[in-house]
Amino acid sequence: MLKTNISDRWLNDEPANLMTLALDVIESLYGLAARDKSEVMLFALEQELATHFAEHLAQQSKPIAASDLLAALYGPLGFAGDWERFFSIDNCLIDKVLTRRRGIPVTLAIVVLHLCERFDIRGEGISFPGHFLLRVFSRNESNGESSDIIDPFTGKVLTRRDIDLLLRGARGNLATIKPKHLDAAEPFEVLTRLLNVTKGSFIHHQQFAQALMCSELLLKLNPECPFERRDRGFLYEQLDCNQLAADDFEFFIEQCPEDPVSDVLKAQILALNLVPKTLH
């Protein structure tokens, strides 16, 4: 059961703000106080950057460039990818990322995109296979616009070869970059990716109740997804909610009868210690 009905707001027609969605996740998992603390830390970070750029902003000669922002964040402000604890839950939660200034590509990207918006820099996320990326735009003297693709894990600009190697690492040596791989990601697409990696981290650390909350949030976004219902079933099973697990497994079997996993789930249902249903 979700602690709040925050995810119900995701179903309205208002434009979605990416940082707001990430903070919604924190509130759903840990309550309003955790969200409030996150917002205080976010404001403090904005003020720290404003102080860093105070002289530049006072001159009003030209706006803050994406390269300036990235140099500050990944330099004096100390943001970096967490190589040593990549699968830590702390790297998936925005409040912890703001506190530790460490994260994984998707969470660091959310922070960078929020600050791009704060300093009037155009940026967008790219839901690249296996490794979330950023695209940032720069204005040039002829009033044109150029862009660079950034690895939010390092803050570095990527070459086409770098991107090709990332794709091969995720999809195999025969994979080739297609335009869709570099399309801008909509906020709810980024949110889905964030929830999936967060759920995976909770499962990795055997925190199944929190993983279940992530699964519930994902089903708010896509209620009829059979694969998420299947995953939720496995989480219910871990939490000894056998009837709920069976219901989700049966939904998957009905929706995906040809999937090889369906045969496994049929045996799984038989193995569950279910209380017989009372007939009226």
UniProtKB/TrEMBL annotation:
<protein>
    <submittedName>
        <fullName>SirB1 family protein</fullName>
    </submittedName>
</protein>
<dbReference type="InterPro" id="IPR011990">
    <property type="entry name" value="TPR-like_helical_dom_sf"/>
</dbReference>
<feature type="domain" description="Protein SirB1 N-terminal">
    <location>
        <begin position="48"/>
        <end position="196"/>
    </location>
</feature>
<dbReference type="Pfam" id="PF13369">
    <property type="entry name" value="Transglut_core2"/>
</dbReference>
<dbReference type="Pfam" id="PF13371">
    <property type="entry name" value="TPR_9"/>
</dbReference>
<comment type="similarity">
    <text>Belongs to the UPF0162 family.</text>
</comment>
<dbReference type="InterPro" id="IPR032698">
    <property type="entry name" value="SirB1_N"/>
</dbReference>
